[in-house]
């Protein structure tokens, strides 16, 4: 009778918690450091995965190490060195990752020792951030790589977030990694002259992860909190590594202030609750306080970053005790600033809504009228939804119903669709003679 | 170090209409590119108009078909190229940014890594 190996014991609760924490907090650090040793993102990813698997295997016996991140990095980097040694005679298909340290580490060791105190070696995580968000990659590849390599989401989780098949997402990630190697996208923090534009690109990727989580494009849940949390964690990390970048500070403020309202955005039945009807006593005060402090810091940059202005708008809402007390004058003024920094139809729509709330629904509808010809908004349900709302306030029920019908055709998300159907039913009930 | 082919595209019609003064500015731009690239500029040439191209097309294993004109009939055509040898893509892009064709409205520059067979 074959001798079966004993099943591995289920990890004790504290080990499981420590592993989950290490996955959340240390994944990027482990992978980024391993990538510099491996000089190959695929190999780094594989070794990082192996290190976590080994932790699952050994921590229940040996206990959780004092510094789990350092333990995981050592295991992953050693594994990478082993693989490289074995592969020396193997055929390499892709060139190695280029970085700014590798070539002179051995030769200049002495020189380095002399200048070590003055030489700032950037955190490996920062290299990984800028490589994943390099402008030579498509935006969708940047996001996919960021979620996989920096946030540690599995390929199937990344695929689910963007509603594509796992095989499609796996191919996208592989293609992006191949481009990094073949085109020699450097594993490096950009030169100071390029930094502002490159940091903004990083902020855009993080923001896209956040909005994907915050307004889940489809499915029955409105919010994918895991993506929201990944985005906030990532912004905190970049801010810690690159302090004083207004785009990152503004973005973190924006996300905290918006996410502070998450508990009140959907009611017990899973239906959407609008900002005007939310129970403000249940907003997350700690997140709001942190967000408000960050907005102040971010707004000191001149000219202000787009995300800082968006955060300032969120701050006006966070500071209003009630919907009625909202300072619409300030909101309209901030949308004017935002429109100059980032001319877009969506900003004009939001400004039009704010004007309507400041000066009355007639004024809002007037502002929205020219936007109805905007091709960008033609597939965007919020324009017709906002018109439906203002028309209902004016008791123009039939027109309101038509607007909600159009919005409903464009809304993808199940929860938002349900909200629009309710509003449509109300408008229709009033429209009947 | 890595080699890249830098392909310069633009509208031939616009290029044909350039004044001598514009051409002089452009020439200076290419000089600036070459100075910045230094020894990293392995080669570079301006191409004769796309209308002078001859294309050979595979014809299912038979004799290739010889036709008049470029491989792709497009509004923007390949007008010239450089081969540079630089540390990485960022360095190649930084050089490509200097090309005067990018100050024309119809211009585009493609940076393509060259496979290193080592």
The number of strands of chain B is: 6
Structural class of chain B: alpha+beta
What's the helix count of chain A? 19
- Please state roughly what percent of the residues of chain B sit in beta strands, choosing from under 5%, 5-15%, 15-25%, 25-35%, 35-45% or over 45%: 25-35%
Low-confidence stretches of chain A: 103-120
Q: What general outline of chain A do the C-alpha atoms trace?
A: elongated
Give me the number of helical elements of chain B: 3
Helix content of chain B: 25-40%
Q: Quick check: average pLDDT of chain B? A: 93
Structural class of chain A: mainly alpha
- Tell me the number of strands of chain A: 0
CA radius of gyration of chain B is 16 Å
Distance between the termini of chain B: 12 Å
Strand order of the largest sheet of chain B: 2-5-1-6
* Largest interface (C-beta under 8 Å): A-B, 12 and 10 residues
Biggest sheet overview of chain B: 4 strands, antiparallel
The proportion of residues forming helix of chain A, as a percent range, comes to 55-70%
Largest sheet of chain A: none
Unreliable sequence segments of chain B: none
Question: How large is the share of residues in beta strands of chain A?
Answer: under 5%
Oligomer: heterodimer
């Amino acid at each position: 009778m074959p001798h079966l190996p004993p099943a591995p014991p289920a990890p004790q609760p504290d080990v499981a918690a420590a592993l989950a924490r290490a996955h959340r907090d240390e994944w990027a650090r482990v992978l980024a450091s391993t990538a510099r040793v491996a000089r190959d993102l695929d190999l780094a990813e594989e070794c990082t995965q192996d290190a976590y698997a080994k932790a699952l295997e050994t921590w229940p016996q040996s206990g959780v190490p004092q510094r789990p991140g350092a333990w995981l990095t050592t295991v992953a980097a050693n594994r990478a060195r082993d693989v490289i040694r074995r592969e020396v005679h193997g055929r390499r298909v892709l060139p190695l990752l280029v970085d700014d340290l590798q070539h002179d580490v051995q030769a200049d060791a002495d020189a380095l020792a002399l200048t070590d105190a003055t030489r700032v070696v950037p955190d490996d995580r920062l290299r990984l951030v800028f490589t994943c968000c390099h402008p030579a990659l498509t935006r969708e590849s940047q996001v996919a790589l960021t979620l996989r390599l920096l946030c540690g989401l599995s390929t199937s989780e990344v695929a689910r977030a963007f509603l594509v098949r796992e095989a499609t997402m796996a191919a996208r990630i592989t293609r992006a990694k191949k481009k990094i190697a073949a085109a020699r996208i450097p594993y490096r923090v950009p030169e100071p002259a390029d930094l502002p534009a490159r940091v903004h690109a990083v902020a855009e990727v993080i923001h896209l992860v956040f909005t994907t989580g915050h307004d889940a494009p489809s499915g029955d849940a409105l919010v994918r909190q895991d993506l929201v949390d990944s985005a906030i964690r990532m912004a905190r990390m970049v801010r810690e590594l690159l302090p004083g970048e207004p785009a990152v500070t503004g973005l973190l403020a924006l996300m905290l202030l918006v996410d502070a309202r998450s508990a009140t955005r959907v009611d017990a039945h899973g239906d959407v609750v609008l900002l005007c009807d939310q129970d403000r006593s249940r907003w997350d005060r700690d997140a709001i306080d942190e967000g408000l402090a960050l907005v102040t810091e971010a707004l000191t940059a001149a000219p202000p970053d787009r995300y800082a202005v968006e955060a300032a708008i969120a701050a006006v809402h966070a500071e209003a005790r009630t919907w009625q007390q909202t300072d619409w004058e300030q909101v309209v003024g901030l949308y004017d600033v935002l429109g100059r920094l980032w001319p877009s139809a969506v900003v004009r729509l939001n400004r039009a809504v704010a004007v309507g709330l400041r000066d009355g629904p007639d004024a809002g509808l007037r502002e929205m009228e020219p936007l109805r010809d905007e091709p960008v908004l033609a597939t965007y349900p919020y324009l017709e939804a906002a018109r439906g709302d203002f028309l209902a306030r004016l008791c123009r029920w039939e027109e309101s119903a038509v607007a909600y019908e159009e919005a409903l055709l464009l809304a993808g998300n199940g929860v938002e669709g349900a909200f629009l159907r309710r509003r449509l039913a109300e408008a229709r009930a009033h429209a009947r003679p | 170090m890595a080699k890249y082919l830098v392909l310069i595209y633009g509208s031939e019609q616009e290029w044909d209409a350039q004044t001598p003064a514009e051409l002089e500015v452009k020439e200076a731009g290419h000089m600036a590119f070459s100075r910045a690239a230094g020894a990293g500029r392995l080669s570079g040439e301006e191409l004769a108009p796309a209308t002078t191209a001859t294309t050979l097309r595979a014809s299912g294993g038979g004799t290739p078909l010889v036709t008049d004109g470029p491989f792709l009939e497009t509004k923007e055509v390949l007008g010239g190229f450089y081969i540079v040898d630089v540390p990485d893509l960022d360095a190649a892009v930084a050089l490509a940014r200097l090309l005067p064709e990018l100050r024309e409205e119809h211009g585009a520059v493609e940076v393509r890594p060259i496979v290193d067979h080592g």
